[in-house]
Amino acid sequence: MQVNSGLDIPDALARYPIIHTQPIHWGEMDAFNHLNNVVYYRYAESARIAYLQALGMFDGSMVTVLAQSSCQYLRPVTFPDTLLLGVRCKRLGTTSIVIDYSYYSCTQQAIVATAEAVVVRLDSGGENKLPWTEEERARLLALEKKVGHKPEL
Predict the structure, then answer these.
(1) Could you tell me the strand order of the sheet in which 18-23 lies?
(2) Per the confidence metrics, is the pTM higher than 0.70?
(3) pLDDT tens per residue across span 85-107
């Protein structure tokens, strides 16, 4: 995980507070020698965890569930390559957040995919939605503000 410090970050990812570095592995290729579509979701999961860790929201005291996810593939990715996944909050709801991802190929020097996920906060039993606390909301907004991004509220 890397918090976006503004240094050595491609312009396309400048407004993403978390940049997750992900090397491509040979075994992740499909029969057409492209990165398998399922792997994009695994990468998003790792990037999402890095984002929640940066916010102090992944310490085991909170239950979250992935309610929805989607990915748009813009260019094929092949081995060898390294992707930089920009992660940010698109919308901060009462009990959920919509997370935006941009996948940047270091080899192609371009965005090769975009994705979105909805994460819902639940009570400790995992049964009922639980609102984000004011402190959690403030931490998230402060992290986003560092790179000049403001999520929808």
Answers:
(1) 2-3, 18-23, 82-92, 96-105, 110-122, 63-73
(2) yes
(3) 999 999 999 999 999 999 999 99
